[in-house]
Amino acid sequence: MEEIQKRDIRKLSLEELEEFFLSVGDKKFRAKQVYEWLWNKSLKNFDEMTNISLATREMLKKHFEINHILVDLMQHSQDGTIKNAVKLYDNKIVESVLIPTSKRITACVSSQVGCSLDCNFCATARLKRMRNLNPDEIYDQVVAIKDEAETYFQRPLTNIVFMGMGEPLLNYNNVLSAIEKITAPEGLGMAPRRITLSTVGIPKMIKKLADDEVRFNLAISLHSAINETRSRLMPINDSSPLEDLAEALKYWYQKTKRKVTYEYVIWEGINDDERHARALAKFCKIIPSKVNIIQYNPIDEGEFRQAKQEAVDLYVRILEQNGIVAKVRKSRGQDIDAACGQLANKNEVADLIQ
């Protein structure tokens, strides 16, 4: 007897699941029951679907599998941050982070295994991009952190940021599909305004976001508003310079009327002077925006060093003089390499740089 080739059941839409149940002579409403177990309750196996008959569960096991993630290693920082090393169905590893503050608990999730953009200051850039994450793998990271928030802090997950490993806009369809599930009533039911997608700024994909009328927030990893400096930091700026990014952001605001957040690290000897601060203030006036100045988290003994406090104060003063909201963000989870720019499977990185 020929063995049935099992499919990942979470790749099926509700409509496709309904068609499957009808094709095997079962009731259409079974699909909705199973769909709720898979997404709203995030079950990892068919045996726990208690309102479905044993015969139906056995039939599902013959046809399908649930490629659920596994939190392979959990590290706890002194400041409360939790970093998860997440094992995927093919044994590849990504990382996600729970970031607690007094007012919120944020999930920082990955969208790719590795990254292809080669930003010189980022640990993830040292990993070659191996593949995109599937929507369910992104969703599962959020569920794991939601459970950890309730277990360790007795508080709900409040926010999600796509600031982990990978460039979300280079995994566009899967990221948007995951966000659709996260915000759907039959999923996690989170409000889109509590989700922020962070990107290096790929102009054509920013325009696509606007055309698709997304309702989540957009953050740009900027780090310099001077082309020469930004290209030194982020090679993608050579093919997508600030002028193209500015045009795409104008399109974004015209379509969505949503302001953008610029993420900005100040490095000693690179962008820590008045010229760079004034260039940023000018760029911020293209559309309504705010700036998060992020503390740099070293990944080695290389050229990148956190700027002195005087430089940070200079930036804040110039931005505020120009009517731009600027917040200085203290990094969390540095002691477990969970802070911004530090996410990478350390074993993979070690292999690559030896």
Concise structural overview:
This protein has 354 residues and is an alpha/beta fold. It has twelve helices and 14 strands. The chain folds into two domains: 7-65, Orthogonal Bundle (DNA polymerase, domain 1), CATH 1.10.150; 70-353, Alpha-Beta Barrel (TIM Barrel), CATH 3.20.20.70.
What does this protein structure show overall?
There is one protein chain. The chain has 354 residues and is of the alpha/beta class. It folds into two domains: 59 residues, DNA polymerase, domain 1, CATH 1.10.150; 284 residues, TIM Barrel (Alpha-Beta Barrel). It has twelve helices and 14 strands. The strands form three sheets. A ten-stranded mixed β-sheet has the order 3-4-5-6-9-10-11-12-13-14, with helices on one face. A two-stranded parallel sheet has the order 1-2. The radius of gyration is 22 Å and the shape is elongated. The N and C termini lie far apart (50 Å).
Please give the structural blueprint.
Elements: E1 7-8, H1 14-23, H2 29-39, H3 54-63, E2 64-65, E3 70-76, E4 82-87, E5 93-100, E6 105-108, E7 112-113, E8 131-132, H4 135-153, E9 159-162, H5 172-183, E10 195-199, H6 203-211, E11 217-221, H7 227-233, H8 236-239, H9 242-256, E12 260-265, H10 274-283, E13 289-294, H11 309-321, E14 325-329, H12 346-353
Parallel strand pairs: 1-2, 6-9, 9-10, 10-11, 11-12, 12-13, 13-14
Antiparallel strand pairs: 3-4, 4-5, 5-6, 7-8
- Arithmetic mean of pLDDT: 89
CATH superfamily of the largest domain: Aldolase class I
Total number of helical segments? 12
Identify the CATH class of the largest domain.
Answer: Alpha Beta
Number of domains: 2
| Secondary structure tally: strands | 14
From the N-terminal CA to the C-terminal CA, the straight-line distance is 50 Å
Question: What is the C-alpha radius of gyration, as a whole number of Å?
Answer: 22 Å
Strand order of the largest sheet: 3-4-5-6-9-10-11-12-13-14
- CATH topology value of the largest domain: TIM Barrel
State the major sheet.
Answer: 10 strands, mixed
Shape: elongated
Order of helices and strands: EHHHEEEEEEEHEHEHEHHHEHEHEH
Counting helices, strands and paired strands, the structural category is alpha/beta
Provide the CATH architecture of the largest domain: Alpha-Beta Barrel
Helical amount: 25-40%
Stretches with pLDDT under 50, minimum 5 residues = 339-354
